[in-house]
Amino acid sequence: ALASMYHSYHGRLCRFLSRLTRRPDIIEEAINDCFWIAWQKAGDFRGDSQVSTWIMGIAYRCGLKCLRQHDGEAIDDTAVVEDHAPSADDNDDRELRDWLDKGMERLSPDQRLVVELVYGVGHKLEEVADIMQCPVGTIKARLFHARVKLRNVLPGLAGSAPYTETMQ
């Protein structure tokens, strides 16, 4: 059962934790901690949310814990996250990912995480609130401010003028 859960969630957790931590050297540690806790606490799962929401909440807390534990350590630049196969049009995909990553870097960590959970993973706002253990209103505000910031910075990163209300 653990192997099945691991194969089902590893790629998603890898992407999620890479966005959260921005530290490739600690992603696997956080994933292993997450699965260990999920395995130990499986009997405590109440079913109030989807299993994926529960696991993402555990991963979120494990990622934050790893960041605290490794604060100040040098980052291992040789660590590579391999979570997907190259696409047919890899150069265009890579350019788009790089452009979006640069925009995401301009967001606060909480805004970045909310965008990743809503648009990248596909969680509902209520699920994100459960994962991050905060009110839905806070999630809505973070998402709103993240979209405004991305709307303003992404055009500049692509070489065009930032969005303004008069440009509608």
TrEMBL record:
Record InterPro entries: RNA_pol_sigma-70-like, RNA_pol_sigma-70_dom, RNA_pol_sigma70_r2, RNA_pol_sigma70_r4_t2, RNA_pol_sigma_r2, RNA_pol_sigma_r3/r4-like, WH-like_DNA-bd_sf
Record keywords: Sigma factor, Transcription, Transcription regulation
One matching Pfam family: Sigma70_r4_2
One MF annotation (Gene Ontology) recorded for this entry: DNA binding
Family statement: Belongs to the sigma-70 factor family. ECF subfamily.
Entry superkingdom: Bacteria
Domain (RNA polymerase sigma factor 70 region 4 type) ranges: 98-150
GO biological process, one term: DNA-templated transcription initiation
RNA polymerase sigma-70 region domain: residues covered: 5-70
Protein name (Swiss-Prot/TrEMBL): RNA polymerase sigma70
